[in-house]
Each structure stands twice: as C-alpha cells, then as structure tokens.
Design goal:
Layout (H helix, E strand, L loop, with lengths): L5 H5 L10 E5 L3 H13 L3 E5 L2 H6 L8 E5 L7 H10 L5 E6 L3 H13 L3 E7 L4 H10 L9 H9 L3 E10 L5 E12 L3 E3 L1 H10 L3 H21 L5 E6 L1 H4 L4 H12 L6 E5 L8 H13 L3 E7 L6 H6 L4 E4 L1 H4 L6 H16 L3 E5 L4 H9 L4 E3 L9 H10 L6
Parallel strand pairs: 1-2, 1-3, 3-4, 4-5, 7-9, 9-10, 10-11, 11-12, 12-13, 13-14
Antiparallel strand pairs: 6-7, 6-14, 7-8
Bound molecules: ligand C2E and magnesium ion (MG) (2 copies).
Length: about 400
C-alpha cells in the first residue's frame, strides 16, 4: 500500500519546515493508520514500512529521528528486529509497540540499550492517544554532536575497545583470520561506531595517534590468543596517513616486539578516505611492511578513492570487495556484475580476494561460484568481543585451534 499523505489521513496539512521525522514499522494496517494520524497531529513527518524486508531494501528509511517498532513482525522476533537496527547502526530513538507482556518489553528495551540502540520506551497495544502524547512530551532530545574534547577523554580513559569479526575460506568454512573493528563506549551515549567518530579524529589531527592506540589493543589481544594456542591472522584498519608517519616502520617493529608477536600474522587494511598523498613514498613504506611479513589489503575496493592506479602502483596482496556490492549481489544484477568483475580482476592480478558483508546463503553460494576464495559477514559471524569470539571459536570446529 502506498503511504497516504498526512492531510488525507487526518485533515491536517503536512507540517512546514523542519518537522521531526518518524518511521512506523508495523505489519498491521490499522495500527499504521492510527499512529500516522496521531503523529501527524503532533507535526511529525511520517514514513511507514510493513516489515523488515521493506526496510532492508530501503535502508534510507532509517535516516529518521524516531522509530516506532512493532516487535512481532511476521516471522521475526523482537530480538531479530533489534539486531537489524544494530547492524544498520540506527541512531534514531526507538519506541517499541507491542501487545506482549510488560516484562518482555522491558527485557527488549534493555537488550536494545546494551546493543547500542537509543531505546526511548514502549507503547502497549492497543495504542492509547494519551500514552503516545505523554511519551512524545517526555522524549529526550537527541544527543549533541560528538566533540574532540570527548574523544580526547575517551583515549585517556580507555573507552575505546575492539570487536573481532571472523574471516573465512568460502569453500571450506575454515577460519583464516579476524578483523579488528573499533568501538567507543561513550558515557551518556552508549556504543558509538567508527563511522561516527573516526572522521572527527582524523580531521582534528588525531588519526595517527588513534591508529597506534588500535594497533596496541589489537596486538595485545593477538598475544593473548597466541598464548592460548590460537594462531590465526589479525587484520587492522589503518588510514593512508599512518603510512606517512615518520615512526611508522620503527613503531610497528617496537610494538610487535613489546607484545611478542610476529608481523607475518598481521594484515593491514588500508581504506582510501581521501586521495593518497604521495604514491612513491607510500610504495616504499608498504614494501617495507611487506618485507616484515605484513599482508597488505586494499579495503572497500570499488568505492571512494581506491583506484586502479593504486592497485597498479602499490604492492597490495589482497583486495576486499566492498559490502555495498556484495550485500546486493543476490538481488541486483549490476551489483553481481561488479562483484564478479572485481573477483576476476583480483585473480588475474594474482591477489587474494575477500568479499565483505556476506549476509545470506545465496550471497555465499554466488561468491563461491564466482571463485572468490575468502569472505566475511554476518552470515558467518558478527563483530564480537574476545569472550563471545571464544564461544564462536568453540562452536566452529573448522577453525584452527
Ligand atoms: P570496514 O573495514 O570495511 O569494516 C567492515 C564493516 O562492515 C564493519 O563496520 C563491520 O561491522 C561491517 N560488516 C561486517 N559484516 C557485515 C555484514 O554482513 N553486513 C553489514 N551490513 N555490515 C557488515 P564497522 O565496524 O561499523 O566499521 C566501519 C568502518 O570503520 C570500517 O569498515 C573501517 O573502514 C572503519 N574502521 C573500523 N575500525 C577501525 C579502526 O580501528 N581504524 C580505522 N582507521 N578505521 C576503522
Ligand atoms: Mg576493514
Ligand atoms: Mg571494508
């Protein structure tokens, strides 16, 4: 059903100017109409979706300030919905709408909060206009933008931590390594994901200090795993600017020695967020890192500034096909064609190829049929803290021990 314009629902013209945006996700048409009318009366600009599939295909819908979420959406449970919003890094305030018990709703609110969602409460069905009104009045304002001062405090107080996501051989399911992904447990905000704070750190001249901090955390964890008998690769994301740090080579040697690890188990994933400054100097540093045993990966291939010229002139060992192509490859012929072309390109150049963002068995099958050797994605394992990753390892017998 195409959404009705607000004025057709309740006789009030759509609000002018910057109205608060709200999204209603509910498979019950009557609830959608009722909520839409109530919110419209409060001046909200409302979008509706009937379920997760619709949201998954139109993730721009999550670019909203408030989400009203039915927790019983067809085949999905409340926890699936929460996981979906976490995966999509939703920053909107979330209000659950359901007829399940208050105890269950409270548990779901708590689970969402600890997963980094901004949970604002719940509405019990049947929705009472007065309850909704109270909730809207009490609604806390969205948090203010992150500041450099907050980030400096985070570094000092050790609020940054790493999650680890498995990387596997697609044909056999064997674990080849893990990628370290940075998170920030920011007081008063909850879990903040890297896309929200790395640009702030880099633009304020803190990108290199942050990279050393991440390498330190990652090497420490690798040393712990090795002490426990687990020998798999560790990938760390580094910005190109780090290659230009005068201490890059001596610093990584010293750090590896301090943690007692060898660099041949370390992979560096380089993403181009801006044009690389000086290719010939970058080639020298990358060559020296490779001589030390590091594997060099071009991350997010096919997007941003990651170009053929860099692939041609720099000594990469591996390319990672960006998840924006892989994640649509089973439903979109063009995304599949781009994915296949990148896999072929990698193979012709003698590079290893990793498909990132594999979420469905159909994508797994397609990538395997394309001859892509390695993959990573929610289908195999989400980014996990070391403890949860330990459980994952125990459940995956093909992982080396
Ligand atoms: P990336 O290096 O391409 O990392 C993969 C991103 O895809 C991660 O997001 C991961 O959680 C997400 N992902 C993995 N599997 C799936 C999947 O199946 N579906 C979907 N939709 N997403 C998946 P995350 O952790 O939010 O990191 C985002 C980006 O932030 C990273 O992209 C990387 O470029 C950057 N980043 C993360 N950690 C660091 C770091 O320590 N230093 C630097 N400089 N950048 C980092
Ligand atoms: Mg990466
Ligand atoms: Mg990537």
């Amino acid at each position: 059903m195409s959404p009705l314009p607000l004025h057709a629902v309740d006789g009030v013209p759509p609000p002018q100017g910057a109205a608060t945006r709200a999204l209603i996700v509910d498979d019950d048409v009557e609830i959608r109409l009722l909520m839409r009318a109530l919110l419209g009366r409060h001046g909200y600009c409302v979008k509706v979706a009937s379920g997760l599939q619709e949201l998954a295909c139109q993730s721009e819908m999550l670019d909203t300030e408030l989400i009203f979420l039915d927790v019983d959406l067809g085949p999905f449970t409340g926890r699936d919905v929460m996981q979906f919003l976490q995966d999509k890094r939703a920053t909107a305030g979330v209000i659950l709408v359901s007829s399940c018990s208050l105890a269950t709703l409270e548990q779901l609110v708590e689970a969402g909060r600890s997963g980094g969602l901004r949970m604002l409460g719940y509405l019990h069905k049947p929705v009472q206009p007065a309850t909704l009104q109270r909730l809207l009045e009490q609604r806390p304002l969205p948090p203010p933008p992150l500041t450099v001062a907050e980030f400096d405090t985070a570094l000092r107080r050790d609020e940054l931590f790493l999650n680890f996501q498995p990387k596997l051989e697609l044909a056999s399911g064997r674990l080849t390594g893990v990628e370290a992904l940075l998170r920030w447990n920011a007081p008063g905000r909850g879990i903040v994901y890297p896309d929200a704070f790395i640009p702030l750190a880099e633009h304020s001249g803190r990108g290199i200090a942050l990279t050393w901090h991440v390498l330190d955390l990652a090497f420490r964890q690798k040393a712990r795993w090795e002490a426990a008998g687990h020998h798999f690769g560790l990938a760390v994301n580094v910005p190109p600017a780090w290659l230009h740090d005068a201490d890059c080579l001596s610093g990584i040697d010293a750090l590896a020695a301090r943690h007692g690890i060898a660099l041949d188990g370390v992979e560096l994933e380089i993403t181009e967020s801006g044009a690389m400054e000086c290719l010939s100097y970058a080639r020298h540093v990358l060559g020296s890192l490779r001589d030390r045993g590091c594997t060099l990966s071009m991350d997010d291939f096919g997007t941003g500034y990651s170009s053929m010229a860099q692939l041609y002139r720099l000594p990469f060992d591996q390319i990672k096909v960006d998840r924006s192509f892989v994640g649509c490859s089973d439903i979109d012929a063009e995304a599949a064609a781009i994915t296949r072309t990148i896999v072929d390109l990698g193979q012709r150049l003698g590079l290893r190829v990793v498909a990132e963002g594999i979420e469905t068995p159909a994508q797994h099958e397609l990538l395997t049929a394309m001859g892509c050797p390695l993959g990573q994605g929610y289908l195999f394992g989400r980014p996990m803290n070391p403890e949860t990753f330990g459980d994952w390892l125990a459940r995956h017998p093909r992982a080396p021990h």
